[in-house]
Amino acid sequence: MDDIRSIGTDPDAFERFYRTHVRAIEGFVARRVRDPHKAADLTADIFLAAIESASSYRDNRGSPIGWLYGIARNVIARDARNTARELKAVSRVSGRALLDADSMARVEERLDAELGARQIYIGLARVSEAERAVLELVALDGLTVSDAAHVLGIQPVTARVRLHRARRALKVNLARAVDIGHSQVEVTQ
């Protein structure tokens, strides 16, 4: 899409933008969130934030999906902060009545499809936040290192170094997890 800035004012442009990017954003959210209601709410919030900030989009600062992933990261981080301050019961009830059975099934299918990716996050728990952010954007969300650097507001060289360190740390953490899993299996047999 040539002019992302128009999604804030042109419903047809927004619909094209939404249809082009909704699957990628659903996957982005599903890799980070377990609850289907929260995933649906966050996906909607991400596109609302995109509409609100469409006028600030600049072609020379990254790809449209990179820009949208940056918005998604901010929306998800804001939600995590809010959830920590609010009662969980209130946040879970808010979106449930808005999903019909078909929508709920689609969200649950998407969450099931991303189960393996969520499990990788367990291995990422010991990787620093800065390194993990680059790895997530490149390895899970498919951005280039340059686009990931733009999303994170860092230099591409810094992103490459962080990506290398994150991959190395993840490899070690996953190997430890496999070792622990094997020893637990042996103990139970």
From TrEMBL:
Residues 124-170 form the RNA polymerase sigma factor 70 region 4 type domain. GO terms for biological process: DNA-templated transcription initiation. InterPro entries: RNA_pol_sigma-70-like, RNA_pol_sigma-70_dom, RNA_pol_sigma70_r2, RNA_pol_sigma70_r4_t2, RNA_pol_sigma_r2, RNA_pol_sigma_r3/r4-like, WH-like_DNA-bd_sf. Keywords: Sigma factor, Transcription, Transcription regulation. One of its GO terms (molecular function) is sigma factor activity. The keyword Transcription regulation applies. SUPFAM superfamilies: Sigma2 domain of RNA polymerase sigma factors (SSF88946), Sigma3 and sigma4 domains of RNA polymerase sigma factors (SSF88659). The keyword Metal-binding does not apply. Residues 17-85 form the RNA polymerase sigma-70 region domain. Belongs to the sigma-70 factor family. ECF subfamily. This is RNA polymerase sigma-70 factor, ECF subfamily.
